[in-house]
Amino acid sequence: MSAAPFVLAVHGGAGALARGPRSRRHGAHRAALAAALRAGRAVLAGGGSAVDAVITGVAALEDSPLFNAGHGSVFTAAGTHELDAAVMDGATGRAGSIAAVTRIRNPVVAAALVMRHSPWVMLCSAGAERFAADHGAQMVDPAYFFTRARYEQLEHARQRQSVELDHDGAARAQPRDAEDGTVYGTVGAVALDAAGNLAAATSTGGLTNKPLGRVGDSPIIGAGTYAENASVAVSATGVGEVFMRLVAAHDIAALVRYQGRSARDAAKEVILRRVPRAGGRGGAIVLDRRGNLAMVFSTEGMYRGAMPEVDV
Ligand code: ASP
């Protein structure tokens, strides 16, 4: 797709987004995606690694209240927040993830700490928080994750007795709030750096009204997040259970690696055929070492952007 020596793409979650003339309502989200892209791009332009670029881009989106990750995370059924995140380095195959954490401001930063400073791949709950705090991650009071829009989304989900993908619940529950841009999406990034290395990262609050302890695909390496230089970097979003059962991110990479399919072709096969056939829906951003980028989704929309353009 690009002759540039480096590439960065981000997504802000998939779901029932309004499109066409109503797309003005997405202005705040587009601005936040653009800011995240600028931050990640600065890392790459300065000769930084793909891993640092995806961490920087995702952390910027975690700090926004607009997305279902970090600050803007959705509520569990218990009225709390449990956050998941992962990062993977395509050059080394190393990965780190954290799950069901309640006090870490930037879960993607904690996932990177696990990758870089432990022999483990995944830490969860209190142990992940202890590890993150010991390694300098910024800890916050759980109240930091309270946002009014997400709380109203929880109340609507409770009334319907449903567990919901953030965009869908938001779109049904809060058409007015969507108008001024107060809700939406799991976040992720994929990058190719000037040294030719790939990386991927994903961060989420999960599903609105999910039971305590439920962990989705985002922090599961191969399900919602995957990167290997020999194939592609992938960050997915959607109904996590189906992505886990299909090991969807790895499935995309395997089609590229073993069948020689293009990033776009592989993404379409998994996101538009295999995931729907298994009863799921969602999207993924997929990037190969030549800079070919695919952004594919089976939902009405998926917030997404790549340098230099941003779109929904
Ligand atoms: N995949 C996430 C999960 O199931 C949700 C999302 O992408 O919005 O936790």
Could you name the key traits of this structure?
4-stranded antiparallel beta sheet; Glutamine Phosphoribosylpyrophosphate, subunit 1, domain 1; alpha+beta; binds aspartic acid; single chain; 8-stranded mixed beta sheet; 312 residues; globular
Outline the structure in words:
This protein has 312 residues and is an alpha+beta fold. It has a single domain, classed as (Glycosyl)asparaginase (Glutamine Phosphoribosylpyrophosphate, subunit 1, domain 1, 4-Layer Sandwich). The protein is 36% helix and 22% strand. The strands form two sheets. The protein has an eight-stranded mixed beta sheet. A four-stranded antiparallel beta sheet has the order 7-8-9-10. Helix 3 crosses helix 4. The longest helix is centred in the first third of the chain and has 19 residues, at 27-45. The radius of gyration is 17 Å and the shape is globular. The two termini are 19 Å apart. The relative contact order is 0.20. Residues 170-184 have low confidence and may be disordered. Residues 13, 68, 165-166, 186, 204, 206-207, 216-218, 224, 237-240 line the site of aspartic acid.
